[in-house]
Amino acid sequence: MNLYKKTASELAEMIKNKEITSEEVTRNFLDRIKSVEDKVGAFSNIFEEKALEQARKIDEENNEEGRKKYENTGLFGVPVALKDNIVSKGDLTTAASQILKNYVGVYDATVVKKLKEAGAVLVGKANMDEFAMGSSNENSSIKSASNPWDLERVPGGSSGGSAAAVAAGEVPVALGTDTGGSIRQPASLTGTVGIKPTYGRVSRYGLMAFGSSLDQIGALAKSSEDLARIMQIISGYDENDPTTADVEVPDYVSLLEKDIKGLKIGLPKEYFSDELDKSIKEVVDKTVETLKKLGAEVKEVSLPYTKYAISTYYIISSAEAASNLSRYDGVRYGVRKSDENIEEMYVKSRTEGFGDEVKRRIMIGNYVLSSGFYDAYYKKASQVRRLIRDDFLRVLSEVDLILTPVSPTTAFKKGEKVTDPVQMYLGDIFTVSINMAGLPAISVPAGFVNGLPVGIQLIGNYFREDLLFNVANRFEKERGEIKYPEL
Ligand code: GLN
């Protein structure tokens, strides 16, 4: 039986109803991985034996009494991939960096612990741009994943491995992380649905930090119901991460079908400028029509500070990255080069361990934090960040959701932008402000342009992930099934 086209929700129910075992499901996906992974390159590490062992344990406990041990059975027995910057005990966790190429996790990240407590089966680590810096997966020091819709194209990034794995049917659902768009952009480019939750919704304990005030763990899947299920499991307050919020997690799944009549949606005029590809604009327009048919009311809104979003984001995220990455010095983690003297050890470990893009961010970060430039760059950027946030809050007091494109283009060819970092950064225009404001946003597949998927972005108010899933789900039902890439 070919299970790879099934959603995580369908699989979990089939397993609980004993129509199939978790072991069979897990084997089926491992076989799918074997048959397509050479082309797709979505994984940095696969835990075949461990996954099967976990699946067998689930099967043993798959009865009413046994399942009581599990907190939430929304993904019971279902295979899940973790992005390679999320630590899990006893598994290699490399952030796709040479400096961590031999790093084995010594504890479980909170999200991993929660997934295990829910009976999900962890099958491997997904490839990514090194330390989550990038938009194409080409900054991975391991290999660069390919877009299952066109293997010569990028799957997006930095959670490109997670997105490619889901799009290719290698796993039904995967965790990703999003600092400036790294879940939403690859979701858009691969025809998957991806959520970046509210800052503080999901614990970052056990996530290798990039920009600590921006990073959030979220997920990618084939349906918003699958996302609702995984978010139900991983969300919530965690005493190990003081930035998590003690705000109740609603029952996302039960709210999926709610009527959206009268829902107010804002279209920010700054997101529909002439630079936006015409064919992408058409997909967005069509989506708006569908939502209107479902009863939504649409109006134009304005987010004037959007024009400063990219420069502000690259100052703040690089400053935080420079501080966060100072811990990789050859002393405690990963690869150590040279024992001559301590200075040489730092320099050699970091020179050989980090790739070009990571070094570029560290240099930008240290520059904007340096005493002569701090006020002009970092302090200024922090002030502009506040204005960007205020823009969103003003608009979200008038409308329930904001709808925008996710990426200004469809998946681009490998090699097309990698030598021009600024070009690559400019592609983040529609996603980075949301991280700076800390708001939740979802990317939902809405159409195709020249055979390549295009997603649209819905942005909600703080902790309104429920509304994002609800609207995305109603939209998906109208849109119909997305076909599968031929591999
Ligand atoms: N493309 C953005 C960057 O390179 C976003 C990365 C992310 O969200 N992790 O910084």
From TrEMBL:
Residues 24-468 form the Amidase domain. This is Glutamyl-tRNA(Gln) amidotransferase subunit A. Keywords: ATP-binding, Hydrolase, Ligase, Nucleotide-binding, Protein biosynthesis. SUPFAM superfamilies: Amidase signature (AS) enzymes. GO terms for biological process: translation. Residues 134-157 are annotated as: Disordered. Pfam families: Amidase (PF01425). InterPro entries: Amidase, Amidase_CS, Amidase_dom, AS_sf, GatA. Its EC number is 6.3.5.7. One of its GO terms (molecular function) is hydrolase activity. Heterotrimer of A, B and C subunits. Residues 135-147 have a biased composition (Low complexity). The active site is at K83 (charge relay system), S158 (charge relay system), S182 (acyl-ester intermediate). It catalyses: L-glutamyl-tRNA(Gln) + L-glutamine + ATP + H2O = L-glutaminyl-tRNA(Gln) + L-glutamate + ADP + phosphate + H(+). Belongs to the amidase family. GatA subfamily. Allows the formation of correctly charged Gln-tRNA(Gln) through the transamidation of misacylated Glu-tRNA(Gln) in organisms which lack glutaminyl-tRNA synthetase. The reaction takes place in the presence of glutamine and ATP through an activated gamma-phospho-Glu-tRNA(Gln). It comes from Leptotrichia buccalis (strain ATCC 14201 / DSM 1135 / JCM 12969 / NCTC 10249 / C-1013-b). One of its GO terms (cellular component) is glutamyl-tRNA(Gln) amidotransferase complex.
